[in-house]
Amino acid sequence: MEKRIRELLAAIVHPETERDLVASGFVEHVAAAADKATVVLRFAKGRDPFAVKIKKAVEEALRREFPAAEVLVVVKEGGAAPRPEPKTTSSAGDIARVIAIASGKGGVGKSTVAANLAVALRNRGFRVGLLDADIYGPSQPKMFGVEGYVPDAVREEGVDRIVPADAQGIELMSIGFFIKPDDALLWRGAMAVSALKQMIHQTKWGPLDFLLLDLPPGTGDIHLSIVGELKIDAAVIVSTPQQVAVADVVRGVELFRNENIAVPVAGIVENMAWFTPEELPDNRYYLFGRGGARRYAEEHGIELLGEIPIVQSIMEGAEEGRPAAGIDPRVERYYREIADKVVTAVMKG
To answer: Residue 37 belongs to what H/E stretch?
Structure first.
């Protein structure tokens, strides 16, 4: 879809330059999903008299080609479209596998799963990094107890690198290290994408067996931009029992399965699957329904990686900066099973 969008843009000529939008360097960003097409144009001079006309022409072309998709065309003026940083300068070259942790919507414990999965992989002897890409609600610094960390910069081979936090043996980078918590919701569009690209390519990751990406909830331009910056080997979808059948979860899965993205879905994790009181260890109370993830996985050909119960130590660990998979054997065994299945899935791929 993205390739087709660029072909359409190449057919639209700027009346003054007499060159198409792509050849003129006016295309700053293109993102595509099954139900959304986004184009950002940046014209070389301010108040370009043809900006409105060209924007309308692009919108009409996209709507004709993709009648079922939501079309968004953004016009910026002043300065040519920035050139992307050459891939050869990226510090991500020594990362063996990249795993995206995603959810159809917020409130399912995605970041908690990402943190504990990182710990479980570390416990298995792997070198692990974690990129907190949840630009609107970065929570990994708190979950690992490194909220006060201020990244240093070092220079390597003429390039500045950002030093990640050593979070209990895990290389951690988060936008939360650079902004106040109250400012996170102010980040939008190109600003958020630019910050994430910088963290991906300029962080001093070093050799890693796995880099986990804690993505923002939902689907959107940020997800598409990250896919364009990194080769993602697998995606793990997090849900709770009552959400596995809703359209948000389906869209989350289909985002990665889209032919233009083609990221394998390693499986689904059902979080908050049941509750067992400490005083009644043999009892299970299914507060949010039962078996929904298993049914969803079976119907859509996805593996059920595991079911995580509601355990008090998981909540306490997140608050105290100690992921429960590293301190509670009851929690560790659930995440160990998930980690083993994820490793198997990415190694097969």
So the answer is: strand 36-43
SS3 260: coil
CA dist list (Å): 97 to 120, 130, 172, 342, 345:
16, 12, 16, 11, 11
CA atoms of 156 and 118, how far apart (whole Å): 27
| Phi, psi torsion values for 321, nearest 5 degrees | 80, 30
Separation of alpha carbons 327 and 332, rounded Å: 8
The confidence band for 174, taking pLDDT boundaries of 50, 70 and 90, is: very high
The two tokens of residue 111 are 């970041």
pLDDT digits (tens, 9 = 90+) for 264-277: 999 999 999 889 88
CB under 8 Å to 344, separation ≥6 — which residues? Answer: none
Instruction: Quote the tokens at residue 173.
Output: 């980078």
Give backbone dihedrals phi and psi of 242, rounded to 5 degrees, phi first. Answer: -80, -5
Distance CA 199, CA 92 (A): 10
Evaluate if residue 110 carries a pLDDT over 50: yes
Q: Residue 223 to residues 6, 59, 280: CA-CA distances in angstroms?
A: 19, 22, 42
pLDDT digits over 211-245, tens only? Answer: 999 998 876 667 777 877 888 999 999 988 876 65
Alpha helices in the chain (DSSP H): 2-10, 51-65, 110-123, 140-143, 189-202, 221-229, 247-257, 292-300, 312-320, 329-348
pTM: 0.72
User: What count of residues does the chain have?
Assistant: 349
Residue-by-residue DSSP string for 1-20 = -HHHHHHHHHT-B-TTT-SB
Report the C-alpha gap between 315 and 193 in whole angstroms. Answer: 30
